[in-house]
Amino acid sequence: MRKAMVLCCLLAVGFGSCKKQEGGESKTVIAVIPKGTLHIFWKSIHAGAIKAAEELDVEIIWKGPLKEDDRDDQIKVVENMIVRGVAGIVLAPLDDMALRIPVQNAKRSDIPVVIIDSGLNSDDYVSFVATDNYVGGRKGGKHLAELLGGKGKVVMLRYAEGSASTSKREQGFLDAIGEFPGIEVVSSTLYAGATVESGMEASENLLAPLKTAEGKLTIDGIFCPNESSTFGMLRHLQDSKQAGKVMFVGFDSSEPLVKALRAGELHGLVLQDPINMGYLGVKTIVQHLRGETVVKQMDTGSVLATPENMDEETIKNLLKPDFATWLQE
Questions:
Q1: Range of 236's domain?
Q2: Rounded to two decimals, what is the model's pTM?
Q3: 192 and 144 fall within a common domain
Q4: 196-230 pLDDT tens trace
Q5: String of b and e for 105-138 (b: at least 16 CB within 10 Å)?
Q6: CATH number, domain with residue 266
Q7: Number of domains in the chain
Q8: Do the beta carbons of residue 265 and residue 309 sit within 8 Å?
């Protein structure tokens, strides 16, 4: 018994898989690896993970790439956590293909993985905890179609290649819009990229050929599938004096997007529950580690915020998630 305790302590020092507590017990260490760390969405995921860790008496290591296009960095983070010997990993894969091998390596090292937010093209995980992104995309498409009265021209600015979550939202949007024969999708192939700045540039490239000589847009509606693409498009519309002159539906929330929704520059935001997603991701991996049965897939839900319902309590809490309660910045 004493040898086992000494070994655990050595592992705690050398690899960080357990943390010594009073009384000689060790605390389970879980790595939570987001796609990025800049956006409000990921701060909310972090807050939910901390909430679960405190409730379940485990330790979390929050580590991810700065930007959501750094596949190599996220792969390195996963590999480092495997070497470190964490008890489990909660991962939001930046790329559904590129992260397959690291997750497979974790499984081979007896480190279970729970996938959150965005899917992985593999079955080497314990559970997938995320919004039903296809359904979320359909909600955005249906809302935009209804705003347009079932007729008009629309565009979609995609997010990034390899991102399973936004790919499903984009497909859901296109399928929903396709049910309205009076609506034409005039562009749906351009990508915003991982930052607001790249989103602004892509928005300008997308809309430039869709303007009259006087600068008026010749389209009636726009859809963007995540926070950064929505904000990039909003910034471009504001800069070109077109904000509020075209129906615009986005995805996720941040302070500027909430302000735009109230101002009538945005006409809908499909909202996830990132605090709950982070919470359930950590809770699920801990349940698995403790020998409890967990479901293979869990839908954390989505709702549509509009200028009309944005002050309702449930919607308000999702528009402005209270991550500061758990996350000290």
A1: 133-271
A2: 0.87
A3: yes
A4: 999 999 999 999 999 998 889 999 999 999 999 99
A5: ebbeeebbbbbbbbbbebebbbbbbbbbbbbbbb
A6: 3.40.50.2300
A7: 2
A8: no
